[in-house]
Write a structure and sequence with these properties.
Radius of gyration: 17 Å
Strand order of the largest sheet: 1-2
CATH topology: Four Helix Bundle (Hemerythrin (Met), subunit A)
Distance between the termini: 6 Å
Protein name: DinB family protein
Shape: globular
InterPro entries: DinB/YfiT-like, MST-like
CATH architecture: Up-down Bundle
Pfam families: MST
Largest sheet: 2 strands, antiparallel
Number of helices: 6
Order of helices and strands: HHHHHEEH
């Protein structure tokens, strides 16, 4: 097993949260944590290691991609001018995921900052049917879409990590 079930930080409290918003938030938190767990203990070369040609996917690329996606969701929520992309044109999040400790540190910093910014924009919007931003997207849809994105990429991270050192996740 990836982590002893008794020590799994995703299983704190032992019971499910009450209510739809709390449940969705709990799932998002767990998938975010799962992705970070898949990256734990790896050096810059391992994090930047690509899956199989011609794919540019790597764990580091996933961290950068999800920071970019969080920024994109912020643009959906706000009504002002959209913030620029973090890493440049399409696919730069993966293409720029190189084996450099500074790139790795920046990716973790960017992801934490963008997650916090998205969370802050959604804080106080407890009505899951409330519509936000220029496109009037319901809060529920934003939360479910974020869960879907992290869940899908956690599956990719499982395969990438297994290729690096044979570890498989639960």
């Amino acid at each position: 097993m990836w982590v002893d079930p008794e020590a799994d930080p995703r299983n704190v409290g032992g019971s499910s949260p009450e209510g739809e918003l709390a449940t969705l938030t709990d799932f998002l938190t767990d998938y975010r944590l799962t992705l970070r767990m898949k990256c734990d203990g790896l050096d810059a070369e391992q994090l930047a290691r690509r899956s199989v040609p011609p794919s540019t996917m790597s764990l580091l690329g996933l961290l950068r991609h999800l920071a970019e996606v969080e920024r994109d969701w912020q643009n959906w929520i706000t009504t002002g001018d959209p913030a620029p992309r973090l890493y440049g044109p399409k696919d730069s999040d993966f293409d720029g995921a190189v084996a450099d400790a500074a790139v790795v540190a920046a990716a973790y910093t960017d992801l934490a900052r963008e997650q916090a910014a998205t969370d802050a924009l959604l804080a106080g919007h407890d009505d899951l049917g409330e519509r936000l931003g220029r496109q009037q997207i319901p809060v529920r849809e934003l939360l479910v879409h974020r869960i879907e994105e992290y869940a899908r990429h956690s599956g990719h991270a499982d395969l990438l990590r297994e290729r690096i050192d044979g570890r498989t996740g639960q």
